[in-house]
Amino acid sequence: MLTQPTLLLDKAKCLSNIERMAQKALKANVTFRPHFKTHQSAEVGSWFRAYGVDCITVSSVKMALYFANNGWTDITIAFPANILEWSTINELAAKINLNIVVESAETIHYLEKQLTNPVGTYIKTDTGYGRTGVAAEDYGTMQQLLKELKSCKNLIFIGFLCHAGHTYNTQSRDEILTIMESSRQQLLALKTFMSNDFPLIQLSYGDTPSCSVSDNFEGFDEIRPGNCVFYDDMQTRIGSCHQDDIAVALACPVVAKHPERLEVIVHGGAVHLSKDVMSINNQPHFGTVLPLMENKWLVNQPLGYVAKLSQEHGIIKMPQQAFDKVKIGDMLAVLPVHSCLTANLMKAYQSTDGSVISMMV
Amino acid sequence: MLTQPTLLLDKAKCLSNIERMAQKALKANVTFRPHFKTHQSAEVGSWFRAYGVDCITVSSVKMALYFANNGWTDITIAFPANILEWSTINELAAKINLNIVVESAETIHYLEKQLTNPVGTYIKTDTGYGRTGVAAEDYGTMQQLLKELKSCKNLIFIGFLCHAGHTYNTQSRDEILTIMESSRQQLLALKTFMSNDFPLIQLSYGDTPSCSVSDNFEGFDEIRPGNCVFYDDMQTRIGSCHQDDIAVALACPVVAKHPERLEVIVHGGAVHLSKDVMSINNQPHFGTVLPLMENKWLVNQPLGYVAKLSQEHGIIKMPQQAFDKVKIGDMLAVLPVHSCLTANLMKAYQSTDGSVISMMV
């Protein structure tokens, strides 16, 4: 019996999400290199094997170590290489096929000097997200970095890696497809420009919204969606998935009710859900609340939404009818706004078949 | 040598924060029952012993178990009692002096029926924060709950417990003191109203801003500040502490620089700092960035601030002069906006003397 905040994982939905993306990649003839930062779990990771996945993406050296220790032998760390961790990178590169991401001459010089084992190397390329990476149009910097990489013995240039994270700021499939198309054109132009000197350049493309709404991966060599393993409230809002595809929900006990303001208090706060938030009708929204039957949540029957979070409290707003049905001691399900951050906080899943699934510590 | 995101803890500052609050409570003749949800660490908890602390506050049954297993024998769970966890509450109550918080007749009935061991019981009282609890002016509900409690064998009524969390929405000492005074008056009036039937009512008062800026605890029997063990960027902003009092900082490696927009990218994201945010000059602010010398951060020499966070990336904005000094591979210190959530994510501290301090898992 569930008695405290518990992250439920519906394995059937999760497998179906994995299968859908794997099939899509297969059909489009691109490599599916899923980002494992969402689930951070050796067991969930192992489920991808049945769908032909043998290479993965992670977001830190620590996570690369964890999955390497769990049998993965082809890993890309899709985060600007941290030169202070060169020695762990070097050790890992001796054991597995390790790829890193660079975006400055300083990093290239330093790592080339320190490393004794070859690492595949991508240039982090920014197609408009504006978080980090070299702007795709900045051919001057690109040429300079490629010149540096050409003279490297241990940094083996592979191609350009892009995460079009600005798809997360959209609210429709059309907007996502526009961003994806613009990213594709920028990356292809860059590849063409460099193709005389580097005829084998590969293009690695990321982000769950793009890969979920599009089937057209022309020009790309691999795709790296991660969140699609679980999806979440935000992805539903963007249009990447249906609510029924979401594979995780936080079970929360009801501890108090406030009829005068139609608010229900659950044990389920910022240390469970994270403070990631959406704005819906100009109101903060920390997750959609659904009924929970045993350990299955009922989709498309929203009871309300999480309007506020403190460390352990979740404050849920409900219409009168839903409010009247909920009792102290009930368990409710919350679809997280951002499943990656919720999973990272919860550190374990309870599968809807009852088993506990552990994660990286 | 620091190579990856690491939560540094300055023990000297921490001890001085504990001592200041303990002295204040002693002088005011109120019990200091610190909230341990901020540090969640048996070792940090043990430091309070030297200042005469022998009773504590926690925010979940799980945390009560952890500290009970680490030698604490007088614990208040300052969160509306979760009736589904009655059996653990009952086991704990057999071993230690356990206090719980209730705010509904349903919870009182259920627990009285299930428990076989006595637990101290507070009524959660809302003096205007509006999160949860019975409104201090709602004498009708209060009388009803007290009547229920009077007939209980195992729920032993102690008094009213209040967390005036609306002090967090202030920006000056005067605003904090106004809220504190209003809370005090409401609680004293309530106590007076009930004193014929319950002559021994105790008043337990919380929140770090109030307890930090005021020395006047007249009328209260105990205070429960928690965050004051570390403080953070938000408490500095509110006026509860000086920047120099903050006892934790996240050390983050610089992985990329963007001169055209004066942004520095560090490894230090939402999974390290949490997404808790302040608004400064109408811009989101996720932490103040300071220089780090070995493992000591230099206060009052801000380099910039964290303007954006994704899962692993921190995006820091800096003025030109600071930007020019920072190099890829440097470690920078970030004062967290909310140290409770940062500590909860990091799951361990590195003391500035080099030792590693573990936390509840």
Automatic annotation (TrEMBL), chains A, B:
SMART domains: D-ser_dehydrat (SM01119). SUPFAM superfamilies: PLP-binding barrel. Keywords: Isomerase, Lyase. Gene3D superfamilies: Alanine racemase, D-serine dehydratase-like domain. Its EC number is 5.1.1.1. InterPro entries: Ala_racemase_N, D-amino_acid_metab_enzyme, D-ser_dehydrat-like_dom, D-ser_dehydrat-like_sf, PLP-binding_barrel. It holds the Pfam family Ala_racemase_N. The lineage of its organism: Bacteria, Pseudomonadati, Bacteroidota, Bacteroidia, Marinilabiliales. Residues 247-353 form the D-serine dehydratase-like domain. GO terms for molecular function: alanine racemase activity; D-serine ammonia-lyase activity. This is Alanine racemase. GO terms for biological process: D-serine catabolic process. Belongs to the DSD1 family.
